[in-house]
Amino acid sequence: MQPMTKVLVLAAALVSTSAAFAYTKTTVEIPFNFENHGKTYPAGKYDVKLDPNQNVITLSSHTDTKTALMWTASPADFGPDTPLLSVKFDDNEDGSHELKRIRLGAKTTPVLDARERHSTQREVSITGGR
Q1: At 13, is the secondary structure helix, strand, or coil?
Q2: Best label site of 22, 55, 105, 116, fewest CB within 10 Å?
């Protein structure tokens, strides 16, 4: 099976950026449950933000305020036609979604699901903003 990319482009209403935090904070609606390192997170609204030094990307749930995931941020390609936010998932054969990478503005996480794959995985992307 050839890798297939599904792209979900969110309307401006789903991705909002505060002018005070331009390129450092946005909200995304993730329409499905997803996994990261064996833990499952529910579908819903999540904040994606950079710390003040722009060294850490945080993904935090609106519904479970105790849920926050953090990763080191590194430079990413970012041009005038690039969406503000890109959240990528591997779409597994069992229907689950493994968080793969987050890019916010000109910063990105490392590949988050670096485990060895035994079959071709489809990629699901959520992009938005600008």
Answers
A1: coil
A2: 116
Cα Rg of the chain (Å, integer): 14
Token pair 């991705």 is at which residue?
15
The alpha carbon torsion through 8, 29, 85, 46 (nearest 10 deg) reads: -150
Residue with tokens 């490392």: 110
**DSSP classification of residue 66:** T
Per-residue pLDDT of 6-50, as tens digits, reads 333 332 223 433 333 346 899 999 999 999 998 999 999 999 999
The two tokens of residue 1 are 């099976």
Three-class secondary structure of residue 6 per DSSP: strand
In the chain, the largest separation of any two C-alpha atoms, in whole Å, equals 45
